[in-house]
Structure formats: structure tokens, C-alpha cells
């Protein structure tokens, strides 16, 4: 999982796909964290992406860097614990101007039963499950 985290951090921007009714929705994200051995992402509960995830928690992430790309598929689970929010905010200080561990909007989600596949044009795919 650390290899997945490191790739996403190096990319800076990665894209998360959700389902909105019967339509796909994709948007850029830029923060990720490892907390208690789980890969976390962060959003705001007031955003459409959060509402879509609560209806269908199956998401996919895609990111590309230096001729390699990753696709991560899995279910995400909301973690409302303050400790998880603090860890995300401390790991990604840019969020602190918009979110707080004590507000009612900050949402952190971790992957459950995820599969990450690394691809390139020159190497065989590499799969990591976590």
C-alpha cells in the first residue's frame, strides 16, 4: 500500500470516479494519507462527491506520472473519528484553511478491499491488494 500512497503523492493530482444515478462523475483530488494501516482520501460532506459516495461507496482512482499510471478500485468507508481527521489534516496542511477536525463538514474515507494496478507501456501490470 505504501507504493500506492507514494505514487499518488508524487502525482499531486489524481482523479476519483463516482456514480451519480446512472452517470459517471470524475473530479480531481490531491490529498491522501495512511492512517492505522489504511489508505485515506478526504472530502467535504457538503460536496456532491460525498453524497454520491454515501449512496454508492464503490469508487475508482486514476493517476498518471512519467509514463506510468495507476487505477485503484474499491469501496470507501467514512471514518468520523476525530483522530482520523486530525491525521489527514496534519499530513496535508493545505486543508487546514478549509477544514477542521471539529467541523461538521470534514470527511475522511478509507479504502476497504481495494485493488491497485500499476500500468505502463513497457512493463507488465503490477497488482497490489489492500
Please supply descriptive tags for the structure shown above.
alpha+beta; Pnp Oxidase, Chain A
Describe this structure in words.
The protein has 3 helices and 8 strands, in the order H-E-E-E-E-H-E-E-H-E-E. By secondary structure, it is an alpha+beta fold. It has one domain: Electron Transport, Fmn-binding Protein, Chain A (Pnp Oxidase, Chain A, Roll), CATH 2.30.110. Strands 1, 2, 3, 4, 5, 6, 7 and 8 form an 8-stranded antiparallel sheet that branches. The N and C termini lie close together (6 Å). The model has no long low-confidence stretch (mean pLDDT 97).
How do the helices and strands line up, and which of them pair or pack?
Elements lengths: L1 H10 L2 E7 L2 E7 L2 E4 L2 E7 L3 H8 L2 E8 L2 E11 L3 H10 L14 E15 L5 E4 L1
Antiparallel strand pairs: 1-2, 1-5, 3-4, 4-7, 5-6, 6-7, 7-8
Structural class: alpha+beta
* Weakly predicted, low-confidence segments: none
Which series of helices and strands comes N to C? HEEEEHEEHEE
What's the number of extended β-strand segments?
Answer: 8
Distance from first to last alpha carbon: 6 Å
Q: How many independent structural domains?
A: 1
- In CATH, the topology is named Pnp Oxidase, Chain A
The CATH fourth-level homologous superfamily = Electron Transport, Fmn-binding Protein, Chain A
Radius of gyration: 14 Å
Strand content: over 45%
Average pLDDT value? Answer: 97
* Shape estimate: globular
CATH C-level name: Mainly Beta
Number of helical regions: 3
For the largest beta-sheet, the strand count, sense and barrel status come to:
8 strands, antiparallel
Fraction of helical residues: 10-25%
Amino acid at each position: 500500500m505504501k507504493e500506492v500512497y507514494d505514487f499518488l503523492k508524487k502525482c499531486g493530482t489524481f482523479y476519483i470516479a463516482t456514480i451519480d444515478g446512472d452517470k459517471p462523475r470524475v473530479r480531481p483530488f490531491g490529498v491522501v494519507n495512511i492512517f492505522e494501516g489504511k489508505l485515506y482520501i478526504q472530502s467535504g460532506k457538503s460536496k456532491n462527491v460525498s453524497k454520491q459516495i454515501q449512496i454508492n461507496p464503490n469508487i475508482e482512482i486514476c493517476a498518471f506520472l512519467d509514463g506510468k499510471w495507476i487505477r485503484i478500485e474499491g469501496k470507501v468507508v467514512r471514518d468520523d473519528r476525530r483522530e482520523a481527521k486530525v491525521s489527514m489534516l496534519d499530513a496535508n496542511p493545505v486543508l487546514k484553511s478549509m477544514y477542521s477536525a471539529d467541523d461538521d463538514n470534514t470527511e475522511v474515507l478509507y479504502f476497504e478491499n481495494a485493488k491497485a494496478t500499476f500500468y505502463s507501456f513497457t512493463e507488465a501490470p503490477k497488482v497490489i491488494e489492500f
